[in-house]
TrEMBL record:
It comes from Oryza sativa subsp. indica. It comes from the Eukaryota. InterPro entries: Leu-rich_rpt, LRR_dom_sf. This is Leucine rich repeat protein. Gene3D superfamilies: Ribonuclease Inhibitor. PANTHER family: F-BOX DOMAIN CONTAINING PROTEIN, EXPRESSED, OS08G0193600 PROTEIN.
Length: 222
């Protein structure tokens, strides 16, 4: 029973890192159980993406103040939908702090976020190389107290960083150094109330695409 696992409606902080088997379906179902959430991190979890799932976050977590959506690096391909995540994030209207490292967001998506998140004070868009700071964006960003731009230093970034891949560069994952390859299925879940849950995931034990999300939450909430 899903509700049995999601027994912390008062949870205020949730961090999901390297959760490769968490999907839109599992995440979207789980996030609805945390209406008081104020801080959310969803890093290195590439199977949670698109406008709808982040709109679900905006609708289900109206008090969300800090959101981190970070990747290993920038990857832009011809068929990528550059502003899908940005349009969903724009519904998180109470945000004070936002990091979207290595995202394919464009000027249009960033403008949507700035226009709809009037309380935003801290913005980190490092390695978001589809953003070009023109006069319009600079004017909209003037109110941001802490601003990190696409080309700013990543010395203090706490995750592994891959070299950027552009649609016309011809680079592929085969060109990456072995030290930078994505690790196997691995999930780390944090909350403000609990110690870290850190476990290797066995694919054979996953009954459906939401299974790992449930297991992570069960460990978190026990």
């Amino acid at each position: 029973n899903f509700c049995y696992h999601c027994r912390a409606p008062g949870l205020k902080s949730l961090r999901l890192i390297s959760c490769y088997d968490v999907s839109n379906k599992g995440f979207g179902k789980a996030i609805k159980k945390f209406p008081l959430l104020e801080e959310l991190e969803l890093s290195l979890s590439p199977n949670v993406f698109g406008t709808d799932v982040f709109r679900t976050v905006g609708k289900s977590c109206p008090q969300l103040k800090r959101f981190r959506l970070s990747q290993h690096g920038f990857h832009s391909f011809e068929d990528s939908h550059d502003d899908d995540e940005a349009l969903g994030i724009a519904t998180m209207t109470q945000l004070r702090s936002l990091q979207i490292f290595g995202n394919t967001i464009t000027n249009e998506g960033l403008e949507a976020i700035l226009d709809n998140c009037p309380h935003l004070e801290s913005l980190d868009i490092r390695h978001c190389f589809n953003v070009f700071m023109d006069d319009t964006l600079r004017a909209k960003c003037a109110r941001i107290k802490a601003l990190r731009l696409p080309d700013d230093s990543i010395d203090d970034y706490d995750l592994q960083v891959f070299s950027p891949v552009f649609a016309d560069s011809g680079n592929s994952s085969d060109d990456m150094d072995d030290d930078y390859m994505v690790p196997g299925l691995h999930c780390v879940v944090f909350s403000e109330e609990n110690e870290c849950f850190d476990d290797d995931i066995n694919e054979d034990e996953l009954d459906d695409e939401a299974r790992m999300m449930l297991n992570g939450l069960r460990a978190l909430l026990m």
